[in-house]
Amino acid sequence: MSENRPLLMRANRLLGASLVEHNLVKIEDLENANERLLEAIAANDRRKCSVLAIIAYEMKTVREEDLLQHIVETDGIGLIDLRNYEIGDDIKKSIDFADCWATWTVPFDREEDFHFVATAYYLSPAVRAHWQKKLGGRILWYGTTLEVIADHLEKIEAERNQLAGLTQPVGTT
Q1: Can you list the pairs that 152-158 forms with residues at least 24 positions away whose Cβ atoms lie under 8 Å?
Q2: Among 16, 46, 86, 104, fewest CB within 10 Å belongs to which?
């Protein structure tokens, strides 16, 4: 996580600001969540390195479902559950796990010049800008939950590690 710490911090900071701007959380709750985020980063707990996870699951000040409903209604974003979605080998091989974990986002398909990307951090302008620059072309954004992103990334890591003859997922302690 240390190699993408600036991206992780920027993604979380701008997501938090956007949550406040959209009146989904109060500034005081965001400040408390930011303190907890620094603790999670120091503990190298990648599933908890998310201001959204802290606000939604520890502090319970916003429900992730409400956030997803908000982006569907305001931005017309579709939703996806990647648990039963089989991505192609070319996408699996090209996944940058550090970027995905830092932004809670994962590319899952490509059709000509269109990239299909699932994210729990759509409201973070830093996340959208990062992936637009990284992928080039056009992006079709889909909202999903933190759990779906984490499970999906861990599944792909496990598959990649099996092929490489490793037993423990990369980045775990």
Answers
A1: 152/82, 152/83, 152/106, 152/108, 152/118, 153/95, 153/97, 153/100, 153/101, 153/106, 156/87, 156/92, 156/95, 156/97, 157/97
A2: 86
Is 156:92 a contact under the CB 8 Å cutoff? yes
How far apart, in whole angstroms, are the C-alpha atoms of residue 32 and residue 53?
Answer: 13
Query: Which pLDDT tens digit goes with each residue over 25-56?
Result: 999 999 999 999 999 999 888 888 999 999 99
List the beta strands (DSSP E) in 73-129: 78-79, 105-111, 114-119
Q: Tell me the C-alpha distance between 108 and 115, whole Å.
A: 8
Please give the residue range of the domain that contains residue 48.
Answer: 2-63
Are 39 and 95 in a shared domain?
Answer: no
Q: Are 46 and 98 in contact (CB under 8 A)?
A: no
Question: Is residue 171 assigned to a domain?
Answer: no
User: How far apart (Å, rounded) are the C-alpha atoms in residues 23 and 41?
Assistant: 26
Same domain, 59 and 96: no
Using CA atoms, how far apart are residues 158 and 101, in angstroms rounded to an integer? 15
Q: What is the pTM of this model?
A: 0.89
Distance separating alpha carbons of residues 133 and 47, to the nearest angstrom: 25
pLDDT at 45: 82
